[in-house]
């Protein structure tokens, strides 16, 4: 698997005509877009609120409905907010617990009639953002906190940094997730993020940190030179990289 930003990975050598339906499953929204073989958008992004409860059946049905609106496609890429191993869901902290053990790749393959690949959503966003230069860390700030780590473009999958200890006995997600932001002032949340960035620099000695997700719009301090905010669209555009072996 090669990140979309690696020069050796574009264009997609597998099929110059392939169209990929890219799906981003989030705690607050389900998004889809159609991509060409180079990862360029062919359609407008569709977004609907994540069903409540966020069960496998409800979300898979929503994906099926969006797929019908996106037109013809040859294959499917899915970013899922949790641990994913060979298409099977291993954790789903911000969705319904019934996701655990679901073979999402197989379920969607049967439903849509197309081959499907599934990966952690932060990993997919990172695949769209990184440039394959040194150590690159991705942190997504949304309903939860996701993370992805790359070394010269090689992914370390399922990092799930958001559930690691951060400060005051709480995890990064407990301190920086959307529920935390809603419970404290924006100023306090930004101070916490500054501390997290400094700690992650000390832990990973990254060359670049990419910040993504819907809550990046809340950032109001000057970021270090090696920290960049990336578009939330990367969670969809990175889907093409799942097909680069």
* Topology pattern, helix = H, strand = E: EEEHEEEHEHEEEEEHHHEEH
Please give the order of strands in the largest beta sheet: 3-2-1-4-7
What are the segments in which pLDDT stays under 50 over at least 5 consecutive residues? none
> What is the residue-averaged pLDDT?
92
Query: What portion of residues belong to β-strands?
Result: 25-35%
**Largest sheet features:** 5 strands, mixed
Number of strands: 14
- Please state the structural category: alpha/beta
What's the number of helices? Answer: 7
Shape: globular
Q: Which assembly state applies to the chains in this document?
A: single chain
Termini separation comes to 4 Å
Helix content: 25-40%
Computed Rg:
17 Å
Q: What does this molecule look like?
A:
The protein is α/β, with parallel strands linked by helices. It has 7 helices and 14 strands. The protein has helices spanning 56-70, 104-112, 121-129, 172-176, 178-183, 186-204, 234-237, and strands at residues 20-25, 29-35, 46-49, 75-80, 84-85, 88-89, 116-120, 135-141, 145-151, 154-156, 165-167, 170-171, 208-212, 227-229. Strands 3-2-1-4-7 form a 5-stranded mixed sheet. A 5-stranded mixed sheet has the order 10-9-8-13-14, with helices on both faces. A two-stranded antiparallel ribbon has the order 5-6. Strand 5 and strand 6 form a beta hairpin.
């Amino acid at each position: 698997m090669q990140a979309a930003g690696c020069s050796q990975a574009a264009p997609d050598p597998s099929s110059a005509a392939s169209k990929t339906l890219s799906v981003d499953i989030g705690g607050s929204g389900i998004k889809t877009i159609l991509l060409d073989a180079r990862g360029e958008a062919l359609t407008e992004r569709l977004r609907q609120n994540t069903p409540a409860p966020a069960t496998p059946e409800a979300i898979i049905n929503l994906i099926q409905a969006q797929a019908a609106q996106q037109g013809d496609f040859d294959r499917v890429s899915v970013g899922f907010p949790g641990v994913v191993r060979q298409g099977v869901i291993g954790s789903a902290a911000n969705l319904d617990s019934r996701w655990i053990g679901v073979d999402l790749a197989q379920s969607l393959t049967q439903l849509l009639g197309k081959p499907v690949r599934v990966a952690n959503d932060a990993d997919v966003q990172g695949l769209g953002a990184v440039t394959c230069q040194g150590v690159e860390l991705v942190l997504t700030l949304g309903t939860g906190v996701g993370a992805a780590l790359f070394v010269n473009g090689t992914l370390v999958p399922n990092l799930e940094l958001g559930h690691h200890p951060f400060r005051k006995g709480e995890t990064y997600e407990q301190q920086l997730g959307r529920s935390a932001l809603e419970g404290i002032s924006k100023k306090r949340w930004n101070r916490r993020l500054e501390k997290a960035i400094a700690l992650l620099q000390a832990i990973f000695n990254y060359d670049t940190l990419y910040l993504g997700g819907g809550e990046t719009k809340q950032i109001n301090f000057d970021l270090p030179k090696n920290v960049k905010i990336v578009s939330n669209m990367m969670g969809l555009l990175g889907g093409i990289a799942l097909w680069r072996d």
